[in-house]
Amino acid sequence: MHAQSGQRGGEVYRFLRDEAGARYIQFIPVVEWTGAGQGAGGHTGSPVTPRSVRPMQWGRFLVDIFDEWVRRDVGQVFVLTFDWALASWLGIESPVCIFRETCGDAVVLEHNGDLYACDHYVQPAYRLGNILETPLAELLSSERLRRFGQAKARLPQACRACHVRFACRGECPKNRLGGEGGLNYLCPGYRVFFEHIDAPMRVMAEPVRQGRPAEDIMALHSCAATRRERRIKQEEAAARPPPPGFSPR
Ligand code: SF4
Ligand code: SF4
């Protein structure tokens, strides 16, 4: 998801669901650092390129899709970010590295046998070795890889005090401003998203804990949505000025 598609969460989701027939969907935010603060295309001062998603765009994008999904698609369409979040609300370890406390088990093997700590870090400093010289098992159990994974747990004060840290965990170090230990660039978006889904996730986690399908949430949500819409209509009607000639008794 990038700066253009970021405004169109519902539209993108409906296209994938209805026209492409996708049932398993993963959204990945594009975050490209500019290095010296000079964005490609002359956006001086921005830490990211113009096509990178903005933090709140990412949050709104996920919220818009979640709101549609939770009303009609639970159990039918699997949006990985929502599945991962549910794991956090169930109190089990996230299936994905970005939302786990530590990482370091997603290495990447290059065509020449070089092994790197992660596909976001195919750089000399993160080269673990070469499987033509060192057995793969030895590289996977190396101290360097362990240290790489443990570094993810070093979080800034904002994360340590954050009430959605159990689900976010500071996300991927690759997206942290200033590298390891810095605040995640996408933080405002993640915060909005995780706060938004808190209530429905609690509701959804309950039947799952009891071995029932999470789809029960859809009935609850459509009732709640209907009630909310009815209340809004009543409030709008009450606020409307009376028609000419109307006098209340
Ligand atoms: S750096 Fe990010 S993508 Fe790579 S293993 Fe760690 S959390 Fe996963
Ligand atoms: S939402 Fe922001 S403050 Fe909270 S854990 Fe995630 S990155 Fe840290």
Main sheet properties: 3 strands, antiparallel
Report mean pLDDT, rounded to a whole number.
88
β-strand percent reads: 5-15%
Uncertain segments = 36-44
Q: In which order are the strands of the major sheet placed?
A: 5-6-7
- How do the SSEs run, as a string of H and E? HEEEHEHEEEHHHHHH
The molecules bound to the chains, other than polymers, are: iron/sulfur cluster
Describe this structure in words.
By secondary structure, the protein is mainly α. Helices cover about 45% and strands about 5% of the residues. The protein is built from nine helices and seven strands. The protein has helices spanning about 10-20, 55-70, 80-90, 135-140, 145-150, 155-160, 165-170, 185-210, 215-240; strands at about 25, 40, 45, 80, 110, 115, 125-130. The strands form three sheets. A three-stranded antiparallel beta sheet has the order 5-6-7. The protein has a two-stranded parallel ribbon with strand order 1-4. Strand 5 (about 110) and strand 6 form a beta hairpin. The longest helix is centred in the C-terminal third of the chain and has 24 residues, at about 215-240. The N and C termini lie far apart (about 55 Å). Mean pLDDT is about 90; it is low at about 35-45. It binds iron/sulfur cluster (2 copies). One iron/sulfur cluster (SF4) binds near residues 158, 164, 168 and 184.
